[in-house]
Design brief:
By secondary structure, the protein is of the alpha/beta class. It is 56% helix and 9% strand. Strands 2-1-3-4-5 form a five-stranded parallel β-sheet, with helices on both faces. The protein is elongated and about 70 Å long.
Length: 297
């Protein structure tokens, strides 16, 4: 769509009462949405109301701006590319600029109260499709009515895994029990879980990979491969166990998005993935060659 047409459509969203507001100390807003038309429209609307508006189209753009510029408020769509991406941006703003107001645009008004209770770093929710006048009044009320906020303590991925260790084990067990192939291999709960506690204990050691904890995890993984072979597992089942663990860890990470330390989340995920790969290798070696001793080096 041509830029002139987009601007015309944006202008059509402006209401008759929306005249320019003169403000010598403009409040700086960061508006994040992956829809170009909405970014253009709300820039026009909010600029006429006296705000200094910067826009971002993605999580990566928003994070770069948050670390480079100072803002009075963040307005982010709830779903930017992926569901709940807006919470990732809020988490970053809360950590880098704790005094900024954080507002989320959502199309689910019925979900509003539940979200506020769970994600208390969000100052307010703006409902898509609501009256433009009411939305602007809500933005101004939040920006002008700043209040003291409690300190938000962010967490590394290892802390999230440690805090949810038992729940992760249970979720993984339930997923394994539902797997169409694994469920046909009859075994007790303890036999199914097997070396998983040792694996999780290794994953929370982000500062070191070798040492006593690593040795315990690798030894347990090596035994696991040999045991699974005797139990009648296939190679694909062994690989699926690790995939399911990846999925469960991702699920619990998503639940804690507002509390995740976003500056470490990518390297932490890479580190966890590498550890899981090496632990899986230990299991695979003894699964395929039960007469060999696995070398963790």
């Amino acid at each position: 769509m041509a830029a002139v047409t987009q601007r015309a459509l944006a202008a059509s969203m402006l209401l008759p009462w929306e005249h320019a507001v003169i403000d010598q100390a403009k409040k700086r807003l960061l508006f994040v949405d992956d829809e170009a038309l909405l970014r253009l429209a709300w820039t026009e609307i909010l600029s006429k109301q006296g705000f200094d508006v910067t826009t971002a189209a993605s999580v990566s753009e928003a994070l770069a701006l948050i670390t480079a510029e100072k803002y009075d408020a963040l307005i982010a769509d709830l779903n930017i590319g992926e569901p709940s991406d807006g919470f990732t941006i809020v988490s970053a703003m809360r950590r880098v600029q704790p005094g900024a107001v954080c507002l989320i645009f959502t199309g689910y008004p019925g979900f509003q109260n539940a979200l506020r209770a769970i994600h208390d770093q969000v100052d307010d929710f703006l409902i898509k499709g609501s009256d433009t006048r009411q939305t602007i009044e809500s933005i101004r009320r939040n920006v002008d009515g700043r209040r003291d906020r409690k300190v938000i303590f962010t967490q590394r991925l290892a802390e999230i895994i440690a805090m949810n260790r038992d729940a992760i084990i249970e979720s993984w067990f339930q997923a394994a029990e539902r797997d169409p192939d694994m469920k046909h291999v009859s075994m007790s709960r303890q036999e199914r879980i097997d070396h998983l506690p040792e694996v999780l204990d290794e994953l929370v050691q982000l500062e070191k990979f070798a040492g006593e904890t690593g040795a315990v995890a690798f030894a347990a993984a090596a035994r696991h491969g040999s045991i699974r072979r005797r139990q009648g597992y296939t190679v694909s089942m062994l690989l699926e166990e690790t995939r399911l663990l990846h999925a469960v860890i991702a699920e619990y990470t998503q639940k804690a998005l507002l509390y995740v330390d976003v500056s470490y989340i990518i390297p932490d995920l890479i580190d966890v993935g590498d550890r899981l790969h090496r632990i899986q290798r230990a299991s695979m070696e003894t699964f395929l060659h039960s007469d060999r001793t696995f070398d963790a080096a």
